[in-house]
Specification:
Helices cover 27% and strands 29% of the residues. The chain has helices spanning 4-11, 63-74, 92-101; strands at 34-44, 53-61, 78-81, 84-88, 107-109. By secondary structure, the protein is an alpha+beta fold. The protein has a domain at 34-109: Translation Initiation Factor Eif1 (2-Layer Sandwich). The protein is built from three helices and five strands, in the order αββαββαβ. Strand 1 and strand 2 (53-61) form a beta hairpin.
């Protein structure tokens, strides 16, 4: 029976010469979140075929990671549209409270 190191070598992974451990690349750190001076959370139906959505404006960087966490934590459908986050339904209060719990200093509801 082949050792674990032999199996890894057969698959193309190289073990370090000092030991029988495999060098694994360190994942790239997630993009840091940064917000504008204020984050605006608003409800609208305009231009969406009568469907209600909640818009979040003021996320400067890390919007994709924030969106994934928001979707998972609140159990809502959402997407990114240019510089704003579009969340399905009237979720203004829930999203505003969640953003405040994530450390956003000023959240404006409109």
């Amino acid at each position: 029976m082949a050792s674990f190191a032999d199996l890894l070598k057969a698959k193309g992974f190289a073990a370090s010469p000092e030991s029988e451990t495999v060098e694994v690349p360190v994942p790239v750190a997630a993009e840091e979140l940064s917000f504008a001076a204020k984050v605006v959370v608003r409800y609208t139906k305009k231009g969406r075929g009568g469907k209600a959505v909640t818009l979040v404006q003021g996320v400067e960087s890390g919007a994709d990671g924030l969106l994934a966490k928001l979707k998972k934590e609140l159990g809502v459908g959402a997407r990114r549209d240019d510089d704003e986050l579009v969340i399905q339904g009237n979720q203004v209060e829930r999203v505003a409270r969640w953003l405040e719990s994530q450390g956003v200093k000023k959240v404006v509801r409109s």
